Amino acid sequence: MTVVESPGVHAELGARPLSAAPVRARKRGGARRRVGDVVYGALAVVVFVFSVFPVYWMLNTSFLPNRLIRGSDLHFFPTPDVFTLDNYRTAIFDESRSAFIPALWNSLGVAAITVVVAMALGFVASLALTRFSFKGKRTFIVLILVVQMLPGEALFVSIFRIIDSWQMLNTIIGLSIVNIAAVVPFTIWTLRGFVNGVPAELEEAAMIDGCSRAGAFWRITFPLLAPGLVATGVFALIQAWNEFVIALIIMQRPESMTLPVWLRTFQQATQATNWGAMMAGATLIAVPVVIFFLLVNNKMTGGLVSGAVKG
Amino acid sequence: MTLTTTPVPLARRRRLPVMPWLLLSGSVALLGVMTGYPVVRLLVMSFQEYERAQLMGMPAEWVGLQNYVDVLSDVDGFWTVLLRSVVFMAACVTLTMVLGMLVALLMIRVGKVLRTLVTVGLLFAWAMPTLAGTIVWGWIFDTEYGVVNNLLTRVTGESWMGHSWLLDPLTFFMILTFIIVWGALPFVTFTLYAGLTQIPGEVLEAAELDGANGFQRFRLIQLPFVSSIVTVLVVLSMIWDLRVFTQVFALQGIGGDREQTNTIGVYIYQTGMAQGHYGLAGAIGVIFVFIMLGLSFYYVRRTVREEEL
Amino acid sequence: MKKNRLVVAAASTITLALALTACGGNEEPTDGGDATGEVRVWLVGSDTNDEARALLKETFEAENPGSTLTIEEQSWTGLVDKYTAALAGSDAPDLVEVGNTQAAAFTSSGYFQEITAEQFEELGGDDLLPGFVEAGDWEGKHYALPYYSGSRVVFYSKQVLGDTPVPTTLDEYVATAAGLHTADRSGIYWPGQDWYNALPFIWENGGFVAEPKDDGTWEAGFSSEGGIAGLTQIQEAFATSNAPKDGQETDLQVPFCEGKVGFLSAPSWIQWSINAPEEPEAEDGVPGCASTYGSDLVAFPLPGKDGGVAQTFAGGSNIAIAKNSPNPDLAYKALQIILSDEYQSIIGAAGLVPAKVSLAGTVDQTNPIAAAGVEAAANARLTPASPKWADVEAAGLLASAFTKIASGEDVETVAKDLDAQIEEILNP
């Protein structure tokens, strides 16, 4: 664990994990080297294509009319003469399907509540685990790790009954509570790593200068935690956005569906699978996440990578 | 504000156990109710005859170890599914780790432009929501209009149209492996890459001057350097791939034979939610929890030891 | 770094604002007790047409001022899973449609409210389809009542069939299909997971699905002599099909409209999909072929082994008031409308068999497809009357087994495995 364990590396990783200049031998030139470059370049392209192809194909299909999707000719690009937004129109506005807009609101609501609460809980818990030393701390840490190993499918029934007994079926709050409980262990664990990376001495110095304990923390440590908070927050957001099976069970009114449950309504045993509309639906769900991911990629990957390697 | 170091009042903190528990109270309460209680219920149900009628309020009957006996003696059901899940997990983990390492080495070897290309590609795959990703792969391999069948028909000249990839359990799991590896590769690659870039440049250069070839450098320097990361990644991947649910569930919805493609998570769901045998599903769940704990034992112990403060 | 922080700040502000809106719109429904309230009806799939839905809603809301009725459409996929949880919760719907073969799983577990003898008489009594009443009974009491029935009929287009005579026995049917089969055209278009179409072959060949033995346990009959004969014939029929061997019954009209199908055995409502216009309005993405292969669409009931009409599977639905219904009285009023002659006549006109025997005449006899449906329904049979039968379906055992038959696996092995699995579920 030499690599990412020191606090300094945490911060560093958070800042620029994927741009670290790698070591390269520059000496031996020559033909062999150049052949190598070509081969490696080709491999890099292969990796890129394999990774991106499903995303590309999803987008491509979503902009093609159904007659071409079902046709025997392949269309690799929705050229202007065939380009259509019909699939999106079907996915969003078709009245015989469950409505998209309410599902979008539900998903956004659940995601927002999950992120805010999970971050708050995780944050204060991580303080307890880093800035204090107390009996039971070790047990708690072990539990936090173990909880993440539990198979969720086995707990569905009980979770359903709990939410039901609180009269929270089909509510955003109900689903949020389940999601928060699911991500909080990870949040605590990751944030703990980041808080650890900020030396307590900094706070203590500030306290000597007259800050209260809370004040010192707020002014000194909190700003340094920004990358960690972003990484953890994005993770919680994506978890909540993608969660599907619990939502299937506890969000059963058509108006309380979340987006993944909505996407599943495209598949019905006795109805035609409209692949075009389905790809449009998948795109609508995926695109916000992809954009978000690309925007915060540095902090995101750095945070998650270090968090996971740490724990 | 000056940064003078002070005699840290550590001792004083130790005397105040109220504060940390206060800070933990929210998480403890939430996890206690939403995770702790269901785990206890799971345990209780696994000793009961608990079916749909019990969900509607009929009192449950205690049946002792009957559910466990039923599960453990079910060779065609439980054991087959378990074995299948383990083999599948092993295949996915091996592939993910090997490919992840190769791509990480590739990222180090190639220039900035190509590295960015690979990074962006992996980010796309990583960001794709699980359900959406699975459905897209299902569409790519669709029996009637899928692009794979279409391309194969063009390339081989034989008709692949109407070939069902999901029907044969072997190709079903091949596609499932695609989906899992595709989704897991970014994380593994980025983590390994982050580890590999921490190796001081001089070490590798010195080795190269000493005449070590690429493979030797990898075996003697790079691999040992990241070995602990590799171990952690292997353990985590094992856990993730063994409890995989959404991908299998969604792919079964697209096609294939459920009976022959269930993995343990889906099997628990089938037994419980679909067939209403909650007691039986509880017993499988408890057994599964023990398997997961066994798997994660190394990881947890190692992590906690590292914690050693 | 600064840029990223800004983005995140902006994003979180937006999500928060959205969250507030979302919460505002998510009020709990008002609990009006018995006087007025919101009645939620769960109908499955597209069998209930828009006309019937509109009638139900309008009539109900006119008869019960202040109350509303919402129809929430469910999918047949995963229906049992969903009902198992949803009906057990406190936010359960009031009135639910359930497949006739699935009803027992719920009636036996107390999921539905009892329909008293008095109510039963009021709703139609002995006029209700007997097989379906039985499917919804449990221990001598009524829980789920018939909603509609529908047997499959065999569709074809004269343009495809040409001069080939319409088969009059089951053997001829398969033989004719084999004659029609080419690389580009299915004799019988039959996706492998569609087991409903397989049962007639079992029955006609003297086999059975599962029967109770004297000691009360169930014996599955696919590996019986008749069962094997049936499965062998099914495999022959599958061999004439170009449909995906693991396919489900989706998109049936698509290959039909391409002229790639000889015979298509399907529920009678598929005629509307086939007869849809080629260029659908933008919103409905799936085109039909009203002017080509749909123009001369005809149907006949599946012929029996020795001529006549085969014993087909009596598909259909039951309808019941959920035990946890918040407004059981209002739900009962909605149930009255659903089982009224007016509503059931619409069902009949749409090509299904109404829930009341006396309304069989409302089926449009001038429509040969509807007439074929009635003929087929007269000889229809049900799946085994075990409360565990729904679990056999939920486990996907039949779909799985017929997928194997379709892909040419050994009939006897498949039959033996299937019987063992069915018996394991039926005899816990």
List keywords for this structure.
heterotrimer; A: 311 residues; mainly alpha; MetI-like fold; globular; disordered N terminus; B: 309 residues; two-stranded antiparallel ribbon; 76% helix
What integer is the average pLDDT of chain B? 87
User: Strand share of the residues of chain A?
Assistant: under 5%
Q: Helical amount among residues of chain A, as a percent range?
A: over 70%
CATH level-two architecture of the largest domain in chain B: Orthogonal Bundle
Rg calculated over all Cα atoms of chain A: 24 Å
Q: What is the strand tally of chain A? A: 0
Percentage of residues in strands of chain B: under 5%
The arrangement of helices and strands of chain B along the chain is HHEHEHHHHHHHHHHHH
Mean pLDDT of chain A: 80
Give the biggest sheet of chain A: none
> What is the quaternary state of this protein?
heterotrimer
Going by CATH, the homologous superfamily of the largest domain in chain B would be MetI-like
Number of helices of chain B: 15
| Radius of gyration based on Cα positions of chain B | 25 Å
**Into how many domains do the coordinates of chain B divide?**
2
Distance between the termini of chain A: 11 Å
Question: What is the CATH architecture assignment of the domain at 100-310 in chain A?
Answer: Orthogonal Bundle
Could you characterize the architecture of this molecule?
The complex is a heterotrimer of chains A (311), B (309) and C (428). Chain A has 15 helices and no strands. Chain A is mainly α and 311 residues long. Chain A has a domain of 211 residues: MetI-like (MetI-like fold, Orthogonal Bundle), CATH 1.10.3720.10. In chain A, helix 5 packs across helix 11 and helix 9 crosses helix 10. Chain A is globular. Chain B contains 15 helices and 2 strands. The longest helix of chain B has 35 residues. In chain B, helix 7 runs parallel beside helix 12. Chain B is an all-alpha fold. Chain B folds into 2 domains: 31 residues, no CATH class; 240 residues, MetI-like fold, CATH 1.10.3720. With 428 residues, chain C is of the alpha+beta class. Chain C has 18 helices and 14 strands. A 6-stranded mixed β-sheet of chain C has the order 2-1-3-13-6-14. A 4-stranded mixed β-sheet of chain C has the order 8-11-7-12. In chain C, strand 1, helix 2 and strand 2 form a beta-alpha-beta unit. Chain C is globular, with a radius of gyration of 24 Å. The chains are: A mainly alpha (311), B mainly alpha (309), C alpha+beta (428). The interface between A and B is large, with 121 and 130 residues.
